[in-house]
Design goal:
- This protein is of the alpha+beta class.
- The chain is built from 4 helices and 9 strands.
- The strands form 2 sheets. Strands 1-2-3-9-8-5 form a 6-stranded antiparallel β-sheet. A 3-stranded antiparallel β-sheet has the order 4-6-7, with no helix packed on it.
- Strand 2 and strand 3 form a beta hairpin.
- The mean pLDDT is about 95.
């Protein structure tokens, strides 16, 4: 999957909007920063999330990091395969490594997120 067509939040989640459904994951940058992932807690299907609200958490050998919803809506699907194979997040962060699908209540929220170029500059300016 080409990351150039995605939108990104400052907390390193990415979004691909198709119709009214946003596929959400965490960027390869975030996965590299976390290193050695050991556990992921996924949201529940049917749960409602708001921008900046909790979407789950990912645990590495060095820290537990919250996952934040980059858009508001209802979780319609989760990637249960991640529980058995976290390496997918490293191997294909923007494809098979998706975390959840959210039926968005306001598609305009996606446009408020950074495009790929702005996200790359953000990561670089953050001293990473």
């Amino acid at each position: 999957m080409d990351a150039k067509n995605l939108r990104f939040s400052k907390s390193h989640e990415w979004v691909r909007l198709e119709g009214d459904v946003a596929t959400v994951g965490i960027s390869d940058f975030a996965v590299k920063e976390l290193t050695d992932l050991v556990h992921i807690e996924l949201p529940s299907v049917g749960s409602r999330v708001a921008v900046g609200g909790n979407l789950g958490e990912v645990e590495s050998v060095k820290a537990v990091s919250d996952l934040y919803a980059p858009v508001s809506g209802e979780v319609t699907e989760v990637n249960d395969a991640l529980a058995d194979d976290l390496a997918v997040l490293s191997d294909d962060a923007f494809g098979k490594g998706w975390i959840a699908k959210i039926r968005v209540t306001d598609a305009g929220e996606v446009q408020k997120l950074m495009d790929h170029a702005a996200y790359a500059a953000y990561c670089q300016s953050a001293g990473h």
